Amino acid sequence: MGARSSMQLQEEEINEIQRETGFSQSQIVRLYSRFTSLDKSNNGFLSREDFLRIPELAINPLGDRIVHAFFQESNDDTVNFKQFMRVLARFRPIKTNQDKNKMNTREDKLRFAFKMYDLDGDDKISKDELLAVLHMMVGANISEEQLGSIADRTITEVDYNKDNQISFEEFVKAMEKVDVEQKMSIRFLN
Amino acid sequence: MIIGIFSGLNVIERDISISYSKGIRIQSISTDINDVKKKFDLSDIMYFAKCGVETIIEDDVTQRFSAEELPSWNLLSRTSYGYHYISLRLTIIWGLGFLARYFVLLPFRLILAVLGIGWLIVCTAFIGYLPAGKFKRELNQYVMLMCFRILSRACSAIVTFHNRENKAKNGICVANHTSPIDVIVLSCDNCYALVGQAQGGLLGVLQRAMGRATAHIWFERSEVKDRHLVTKRLKEHVDDLDKLPMLIFPEGTCINNTSVMMFKKGSFEVGTTIYPVAVKYDHRFGDAFWNSSKQGMIQHLLNIMTSWAVVCDVWYLPPMSKLDGEDAVEFANRVKSEIARKGGLVDLEWDGQLKRAKVKDSWKEKPQEEYSKMLKVD
User: Fold this and answer.
1) What pLDDT digit, counting tens, does each position of A83-137 carry?
2) Which of A55, A71, A93 represents a domain boundary (last residue)?
């Protein structure tokens, strides 16, 4: 009876998360409520199943990669609330007051997007990795050859050191004209 | 010392949504994204990433399977999401409320419930002996209304009926489902033939009792799977004008009364006039939602009987029939929209079975298809 969302979140933990991520107190408390409602087994951790129980995430073609981003943060097969918040912090809008940007700088956001492509985590996007992600996005609707030529074209356009892979620096340069602030920010209320 | 009182409002403003029927929708872009044709860009992944993280923070579906959050506390500990120890005065008030609900209201309501059920069983047994005919039907109507009104008092139900000229006389009546109490609430005003699975225990006794006085449809568990059999029995019942209108809840499961979820097409294939009914509970007096994956029926009924009251509005909508060229699914969606609109509920296309079941992998195919249509391929 209401125990599900009882305040197991201590004041100090809230302050710590606030310092680290820049979220406001009320946002943290609200997100904690969400965290506990996803935590069906009530043990303070989220598992992969807990995430994929969200129907809209399960039908997202890149749902698995997004969930993976949370587990990369925790380096484990469970995600606790602090780790959960650290990932969400990337999507905070960028504030004009520089001091208020904790984990949500343009570079942080680009790094999140880069890691979605970088399947083996070696800090480079190879052609195979790009192909695999393209496959996730389009399913069976585009042929292998066409996907291959898209991947080739994309890499050629951004690959400056001609190693046939995209490094993070090359990725950042490629995204120069992209409005990353808008595309990778979520509008948090209050 | 007050710790965290939630306003029950949204945390974020959703921008991107992916649905398995409508594809990709982006609020912040004015043109319809589905009309755009562009070459692949590395930044495309950002749409999927942002949408995914948005749904992790707030999604349309999972919130429907738990009780609605209230803007301010209604002194029931079961609705104290995130409210913790607030103040001594409030705790005392809550304590008094607790005593009143459990030691004054509850015994009174239990007595009424027992009386109501007992009277129902006795009367239906008596009516069962009468020969079929007009007198039997009218007596059944009279008795049923009386018994359900007693039972509704047992829940302290205060129901306001709107547009009673649209009440169903035969055919099929469909309504959104929140709790088994829906049946009691609706049966205070009109007599229905109920449809459901045959149960054991007290519920089974009631089912058989009611079945003596008038025709209801109770399916065995095995029969439920046989779609043709179900449709056939429904059709037989509906074609007989002497029988009562059938009450069906096409969602197939209880939803928390903030939205209407997918209507199963079964009842819309029978080919008769549908009388939609919208039911909206006022949750400030007590949440009527039955979370069947968390609570048993007895505990739920106990919850109802220890709430302040069950206050609800019932709207009878004008009858609807299937249009030419419309199939059962489209018809079902049309009726669902009408009910959602009237009751002030969110109209969702998602299946209520997602309360327990998982999303099928094949549902990913629609967004994948939508995205690939957008891509300009050499």
Assistant:
1) 999 999 999 988 877 677 788 889 999 999 999 999 998 999 999 999 999 999 9
2) A93
Number of domains in chain A: 2
CB contact under 8 A, A56 and B44: no
Decide if A54 is inside a domain: yes
- The shortest C-alpha distance from A155 to chain B (Å) reads 10
A127 and A173 part of one domain? yes
Q: Which of A67, A93, A119 is the last residue of a domain?
A: A93
Cross-chain CB nearest to B15 (options A34, A187, A189): A187
Contact A178 B43 (CB under 8 A): yes
Name the minimum distance, in Å, from the CA of A6 to any CA of chain B.
5
Q: For the whole model, what pTM was predicted?
A: 0.78
Residues counted in chain A: 190
Distance CA A132, CA B1 (A): 54
On whether residue A100 sits in a domain, the answer given is no
> Which of A51, A62, A183 is facing B43, going by the closest CB pair?
A183
Domain identity same for A123 and A86:
no
Query: Which tokens go with A67?
Result: 């969930």
Q: Write out the two tokens for B198.
A: 């045959």
Establish if B369 touches chain A: CB-CB under 8 angstroms: yes
Q: Is B51 on the interface with A (CB under 8 A)?
A: yes
Yes or no, beta carbons of A117 and B52 under 8 Å apart:
no
Which of these, B7, B4, B58, B69, lies nearest to A9 by C-alpha position?
B4
Task: Please say if the pLDDT value at position B89 is more than 50.
Answer: yes
pLDDT tens by residue, B23-52? 677 777 666 666 677 888 888 899 999 999
Partner A contacted by B75 (CB < 8 A): no
What does residue A37 show for φ and ψ, rounded to 5 degrees?
Answer: -75, -25
Nearest alpha-carbon partner for A185 in B44, B53, B23, B11: B53
Residues A28 and A75 both lie in one domain: yes
Of B11, B61, B366, the CB nearest to A31: B11
Q: Is residue A155 part of a domain?
A: yes
Mean predicted confidence (pLDDT) in B84-99: 79
Q: What is the CATH number of the domain that holds A128?
A: 1.10.238.10
Q: Is B364 helix (H, G, I), strand (E, B) or coil?
A: helix
Per-residue pLDDT tens digits for B218-251: 888 787 778 788 888 888 888 888 889 999 999 9
Residues A87 and A148 grouped into a single domain: no
Give which of A30, A34, A51, A126 to mutate to test B binding, by max B Cβ within 10 Å: A30
Both tokens of residue B13?
């403003």
Query: Between A and B, how many residue pairs show a Cβ–Cβ distance under 8 A?
Result: 192
Q: What's B317's DSSP letter? A: P
User: Domain limits at A87?
Assistant: 11-93
* Same-domain status, A85 and A130: no
Kindly report the backbone phi and psi dihedral angles of residue B143, in degrees, each rounded to the nearest multiple of 5, phi listed first.
-65, -45
Q: Which residues of B touch A59 (CB under 8 A)?
A: 18-20, 359, 363-364, 366-367
Q: What is the pLDDT of residue B4?
A: 35
Indicate whether A131 and A110 sit together in one domain. Answer: yes
Q: Is residue A157 domain-resident?
A: yes
